[in-house]
Design a protein that fits this description.
Elements: H1 3-20, E1 29-30, H2 66-77, H3 82-90, E2 96-99, E3 103-108, E4 111-119, E5 134-135, E6 148-151, E7 156-160, E8 165-166, H4 172-181, H5 188-202, H6 206-222, E9 226-227, E10 235-238, E11 243-246, E12 249-250, E13 252-253, H7 265-273, H8 275-284, H9 287-311, H10 317-331, H11 336-346
Antiparallel strand pairs: 1-13, 2-3, 3-4, 4-7, 5-6, 6-7, 8-10, 9-12, 10-11
Helix pairs in contact: 1-4, 5-8, 5-9, 6-9, 7-9, 8-11
The structure holds adenosine-5'-triphosphate and magnesium ion.
Residues 100, 231, 233-234, 248 line the site of magnesium ion.
């Protein structure tokens, strides 16, 4: 099998266990459904019973859950069935939002706060009507990290939408497969694009970084989810509100009950600067660009450090190293760890 497909396969295997809903450990990770709160571990996830949200809405923010989603749909689509609405939405290119390693995401016309997320390996429109859609209880104290509010356990999810723009190339996951195998995969234009994104982020005020840090602290407190630091498109920037958000939560490490050591300073830095492309970007830029990249990146690192200090988030370099090691091990590559080492060297005075 070609190397470049291996990572996708591994992520798909992980996602499969997510869809099946029980923990399984292909490597040293225990996997948990994205957007999960702790209580759900205890219930039988294979049950096809419709699960009614148990939480009283005690949120300080907007309450986003399956009940609210259904109410919104009803207002817009009257008595049209959810399945027909979904099949119609995903058939139109205008509703396409983006893709990552394993999923394609679509919006639903008239519905602002939610998105459809389809895992390519597990979702099929043909069998969609066979599986019941099950509500996912929400811990309303956890901020919006794009958690899912419902799933059919066969690759279909409704997620909370996060407003803003993804932080990297739209086809990042395709690109990275190329970079794994061919060091010239990133073009100069793409390097400039990533530089622009990093520069824009570096100009966000300290407050934006502080708020993200606070959200991560709440995520650690109220869920057992881990931030997926691999894909920088999991960082969503709202330029208008100068808000930084993260989507796409995944597994947590089995041998530690708390995610606090995993979601922290380096989760932010790695999503913001993307160690997997960073050195490539640096190499592709001219001297002027190189200087801009280093300066903007240092600015970001410093703002993250200040934010983390204010909110008590800890360094998570070790966890990042484990993730990159695991990526390489599972894909039989030596790509991510050296890329991360190079990245750390470039900022050795700070990191
Ligand atoms: N909740 C959300 N709010 C806003 N945009 C989203 C949301 N979920 C997904 N997107 C967009 O769709 C893209 C793909 O979604 P997602 O990250 O869920 O896919 P994935 O295959 O799991 O990604 P990864 O490569 O990180 O594993 C994202 O990069 C982002 O651009
Ligand atoms: Mg993603």
């Amino acid at each position: 099998m070609e190397k470049k497909y291996l990572y996708v396969l591994i992520r798909s295997m992980q996602i499969q266990s997510i869809s099946l809903g029980y923990t399984l450990s292909p490597a040293k990770f225990m996997l948990a459904p994205k957007g999960l709160n702790q209580s759900i571990n205890k219930r039988d996830y294979n049950s096809t019973d419709v699960y009614t949200p148990e939480y009283k809405d005690i949120s300080f923010g907007q309450k986003l859950n399956y009940v609210d989603f259904i109410k919104t749909l009803h207002k817009v689509y009257k008595n049209k069935s959810l399945k027909n609405i979904v099949l119609s939405a995903i058939s139109e290119q205008k509703n396409y939002v983006g893709s990552g390693f394993s999923a394609d995401v679509y919006s639903i016309p008239g519905v602002d706060k939610y998105l459809i997320r389809l895992e390519r390996k597990h979702f099929s429109p043909g069998s969609f009507s066979k599986y019941p859609i099950i509500s996912e209880p929400q811990n309303e104290l956890a901020p919006n990290f794009g958690q899912y509010i419902a799933t059919n356990n066969h690759g279909f999810f409704i997620t909370k939408k996060v407003f803003g723009e993804s932080h990297s190339l739209p086809n990042w996951s395709e690109k990275i497969k190329g970079i794994e195998n061919d060091s010239s995969a990133l073009t100069h234009k793409e390097a400039e694009y990533i530089l622009k994104k990093i520069t824009e982020l570096s100009e966000f005020p300290q407050k934006s970084f502080d708020e993200l840090s606070l959200k991560i602290q709440k995520l650690n407190k109220h869920t057992d989810c881990e931030i997926d630091i691999m894909n920088p498109n999991n960082l969503i920037l709202n330029n208008q509100l100068q808000e930084i958000n993260i989507i796409d939560l995944w597994y947590h490490h089995s041998d530690n009950g708390s995610t606090a050591p995993f979601n922290g300073t380096d989760s932010m830095i790695n999503l913001m600067l993307d160690p997997l492309t960073h050195n490539q970007v640096y190499e592709k830029l001219g001297n002027n660009g190189k200087e801009k990249l280093i300066n903007a990146s240092k600015k970001i690192i410093q703002k993250v450090f200040i934010a983390a200090q204010k909110t008590g988030l800890t360094r998570t370099k070790n966890n990042a190293t484990i993730i990159y090691k695991d990526f390489d091990k599972n894909a039989n590559l030596t790509f991510a760890v050296p890329a991360y080492d190079e990245f750390l060297k470039l900022y050795h005075d700070l990191l």
